[in-house]
Amino acid sequence: MHVTEFGITGLSFEPQTVWIDDEDHFFGVPGTWFSLLREGWENDQLYALDLKARDERNARLQSNWRGIPHTRSRSVLTRNWQAE
Prior knowledge:
Helix content: 25-40%
Number of strands: 4
Strand content: 15-25%
Shape: elongated
Low-confidence stretches: none
Structural class: alpha+beta
Number of helices: 1
Order of helices and strands: EEEEH
Strand order of the largest sheet: 1-2-3-4
Largest sheet: 4 strands, antiparallel
Distance between the termini: 49 Å
Number of domains: 1
């Protein structure tokens, strides 16, 4: 079976992964706290798919971070800072 990974943004700090099959039917949602998977498929198969998707996401995020400069032209001093 072939599934396609989609990332839904705006629900949390990173995209929520959803897998859809070639007939546009729901296949599964991987997660660290809970996962949903089409009946008849085992958790081991979901775990393997999630690892592959996580590796691809991490590679994509790393390539995105390379384009963001991490250096500052001068130092920054913060005093009496509070988060509200």
